[in-house]
Amino acid sequence: MPVEYVVPRPSQKTAPSPQATRREFLYLATAATTAIGVASLAWPFLDQMNPSADVIAAGGPVTVDISKVEPGQQIVVTWRGRPIFIVHRTPDALTALQSTSMLDRLRDPQSQALQQPPYAKNWSRSVKPEFAVLVGICTHLGCIPSFRPTVTADWPGGYLCQCHGSKYDLAGRVFRGVPAPYNLPVPPYRFENDATLVIGDNPQGSNFSLDDINQL
User: Which of 28, 53, 129, 168 could bridge across to 159 with cysteines, CB 3.0–4.6 Å?
Assistant: First the structure.
């Protein structure tokens, strides 16, 4: 089954992001390569209403229907011109994220670096443990890591950046001994209800911005 980006439904317009950097160019330039690896996994994507190009560029919050994302599956949407990974993690994956053997392999297992909102600074780096929401840009040189959820004897499941070998677990936490210095960023987001995710909007009482993080 072909894999393609989910085009999300906009909630409102905000000011355009000023960031148009080499990092953005790099992850766009590598998208074709990583798409080959992702396509081989044949993860289903959801249909969404199609916003206009100027709305997408403006970077307003977007809503995503996650009701059909099965455990073990990932969908990818675009927010502020960036790929956002949304993963429905399995119970086994959640157990693995808390295991001592996993934590010992990570550079920042407790998410001490500011790469996520305060409400996602926890063991799952998420609002709801079963759903991960991550900016899909490697913190080394801005490539797009490929989704590798299958656990093997030497791979606990997660993400691999094929450009330079950086690796992340299914919470977006970076492994030790790889070029990437930071965990994958977590964007501002909230759940409107059990089936609807709003990316680019914080829960009530929080004013976190993606511009606040250490590195994108």
Answer: 168
* Type of residue numbered 139: T
154 — pLDDT class (breaks 50, 70, 90)? confident
Domains by residue range for the chain, with CATH: 9-203 (2.102.10.10)
Q: Model pTM?
A: 0.76
CA–CA dist 11, 60 (Å, integer): 7
Do 52 and 62 form a contact (C-beta atoms < 8 A)?
no
164 assigned to active site:
yes
Mean pLDDT of 109-118: 96
Q: Exactly one of 22, 68, 164, 176 is catalytic; which is it?
A: 164
Whole-Å CA distances, 174 to 24, 116, 128, 129: 20, 13, 20, 18
Write the secondary structure of 126-143 as one string of H (helix), E (strand) and C (coil): CCCCCEEEEECCCCCCCC
User: Per-residue pLDDT tens for 161-193?
Assistant: 988 899 999 999 999 999 999 999 999 999 999
The answer to whether 109 and 99 are in contact (CB under 8 A) is no
